[in-house]
Amino acid sequence: MSGKVVADPEDALSDLRDGAVIMVGGFGLCGTPENLLAAVKAKGVKNLTLVSNNGGTDEHGNGQLIKNGQVKKMIMSYGGECKAFEEMALAGTLQVEWNPQGTLAERIRAGGAGIGGFFTPTGYGTLVAEGKETRVIDGRNYVFEKPLRADFAFVKAWRGDRAGNLVFRKTARNFNQVMATAARVVIAEVEKLVEPGELDPDSVHTPGIFVDRIFQGAKYVKPIEKRTVRPRAGVAA
Predict the structure, then answer these.
(1) Is residue 62 a contact partner of residue 35, using CB atoms and an 8 Å limit?
(2) Residue 13, SS3 per DSSP
(3) Of 59, 57, 48, nearest to 23 (Cα)?
(4) Cβ-proximal residues to 144 (8 Å cutoff; 6+ apart), any chain
(5) Per-residue exposure over 189-211, b if at least 16 CB sit within 10 Å of its own CB, e if not
(6) Which of 29, 111, 189, 220 shows the greatest Cβ crowding within 10 Å of its Cβ?
(7) Domains along the sequence of the chain with CATH
(8) How many C-beta atoms lie closer than 10 Å to residue 166's C-beta?
(9) Element (H or E) spanning 209, and its range?
(10) Where are the beta strands (DSSP E) in 77-146?
(11) Could you tell me how far CA 34 lies from the centroid of its own chain?
């Protein structure tokens, strides 16, 4: 390890242990830290709690860890594309803490900003609000949500420099940016690692002060959850 740069995902995960709480960036399979998730699977750590937008699929994203029996709990907003997640959640062998998507993002942001929680009208009167504090503010019902923090945050960026500054590309920015503020150890994998000064300062989405370890990933698959096509006018099917 030289500064923040590590050789590979295995080196980046040298202190990952059973029972860790991990924030995993990505939206569906877009912008997911593929190399880090593969390394976690190979390492075999168990009883993990994952904070993520979704459950991935059986073969990609968080789903591969769920299917491999490494995940104890998911804190998430969507789980519809992973058969293993569905079966384990319904059987009660996987704990699930559901969040409206905006609430999940704001809980992570609150954790990163040091905010003790917030009131939101989203979820009031539903199962999401069970056991939580509620309040009427200006005649409207709200439910209190607590912040989220993690032991590790795994983020995936398009480009990064050796100082840890990150640039995300388009929708792959998703949950990655906010998660980089809300964990004890932030590990970034990037498609291209450059020298300090090569990134336009005005284009940096996550400053290096938030990033503890960084490495250049390899062999990105960038899978698609559901590939759908429609016929083009004038083109035979």
Answers:
(1) no
(2) coil
(3) 48
(4) 117, 118, 119, 132, 133, 134, 135
(5) bbbebeeeeebeeeebebebebb
(6) 189
(7) 9-117+148-216 (3.40.1080.10)
(8) 27
(9) none
(10) 95-98, 118-120, 134-137, 140-145
(11) 11
